[in-house]
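On clarity, I found the account of how folds are encoded harder to follow than it need be. What matters is that the chain and its backbone geometry are given together, residue for residue. The format is easy to grasp once an entry is in front of the reader. For illustration, here is how one protein appears when written out as sequence plus structure tokens.
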Amino acid sequence: MMIIRFLVLIGFCLTIVRTPLHAQEFGRNKPGYKRFEYKVYETPNFEIYHYFENDSLLNELARRSEEWYRLHQRVLKDTIKDRNPIIFYENHSDFQETSAISSTVSVGTGGVTEALKNRVIMPVAATNAQTDHVLGHELVHAFQYNIVIQGDSTNLNNLNNLPLWMVEGMAEYLSIGSVDPHTAMWMRDAILNDDFPTLKKLSSSLLLQRVCQCRQVL
């Protein structure tokens, strides 16, 4: 049953003591409407880039980041050597202006994790639960990329060989757990309509696009 749930959770597009450091600007590689004055706070495992005035929000995000780190570390049996960067935005509109990534950020994108720099870039969502889910999801990606890039028997080319359904499915499974009403709904709908995907279909970009569109609606 766990394998079935893992396969169904495909292509979800998404996505302490602190010491203040210096302000920082990221590269200006696309137009923006605001100037973000970033501050940096260090936690044991993260460098958190932010421009928040609300210390309570920053404290909560830092706490949840460390909790997700410990959880994923236990499950995946891996440790990220250096402090992993996380860039937080106050809302999705600000997130869409990010210059940390060059590509356009769509309305349905919940967060992004860069494979090479391992930076997590994400906004604060409408609810605490949504923010926590995306944070947990993106930090799974950070561990995945760290394992592949730092592994003794792997190299950067292996990133392109990882199936998207596996990468995204694992991130969803480890961030929402084994019981989820949306997943149960999609499972029932797939079985009733004889539309349960095969392994071949899991690699279909059309199928992944459809799942992402469903996720955005929800």
Notes: The first strand starts at residue 19 and ends at 20. The chain has nine helices and six strands.
